[in-house]
Amino acid sequence: MLNLKKADDHELIKDYTEGNELAFDVLINRHRNEIYKRIYLIVRDRTMAEDILQDSFIRMMRSIRSRTYNEDGKFLPWALTIARNICIDYKRKNMRSKNLFYKVSIPDNFSQQTTTIKCRLSQRQLQQQVELILNKLPEVQRTVIQYRHFEQMSFKEISQAMGTNMNTTMGRMRYGLKSLNKIIGNNRSIFQ
To answer: Do 148 and 93 belong together in one domain?
Structure first.
């Protein structure tokens, strides 16, 4: 048996497949914070991030036990891919349960400025129109815009959450904004 704390990831996985349950605990504890941080950047909910983290560990454990884990790469990138895929599944499931509509919340100060019934109706109509337009964008562009403008994430955080590099993220934002301008230009009547 190895000194588990000093063992590298490959040795811990080998030890775990040979029946040492503690090896997996050491492996997970070593990478737990990094995996959790990446999950949280995507879901932005502590409870959901913890649930996804646990699901990720279970999936990793099953894969290693069934010997379908391939040691071509390093453990952490593989673990992050599993966690990201579970996050994507969660987001898709969550979107389906919301009838596939993108929800936008109008800033609080907007509702404070609008006190009449007519203004509140306008706020509701504006929200519906924004949701309609955003739902016409490709998913990756819509997601980048959501993260940047509605969740105030930096491009670095968005890149980490989506598993892309910074240039790809900024490109998706640029194309998303161009698409939004085109959609709005073609549908000016809904804003009058």
So the answer is: no
Tokens of 130: 């924004």
Contact between 38 and 160 under an 8 Å Cβ cutoff? The reply is yes
The pLDDT value recorded for residue 150 is 74
Reported as a single tens digit per residue, the pLDDT across 9-19 is 888 888 888 88
Average pLDDT rounded to a whole number, residues 97-112: 48
Residue 68 lies in a domain: yes
Q: Are residues 18 and 86 in the same domain?
A: yes
- Measured CA to CA, the distance from residue 122 to residue 116 in angstroms comes to 10
Is the pLDDT assigned to residue 128 strictly greater than 60?
yes
Are 114 and 67 found together in one domain? no
Query: Is residue 102 assigned to a domain?
Result: no
167 neighbors 181 (Cβ within 8 angstroms): no
Which DSSP string corresponds to 79-126? HHHHHHHHHHHHHHHHHHHTTT-------HHHHHH--SHHHHHHHHHH
Which structural domain range is residue 77 located in? 9-97
Answer yes or no: do 167 and 127 share one domain. Answer: yes
Q: Which residue has the tokens 């993260």?
A: 147
Structure tokens at 118: 């007519």
The answer to whether the predicted template modeling score (pTM) of the entire model surpasses 0.85 is: no
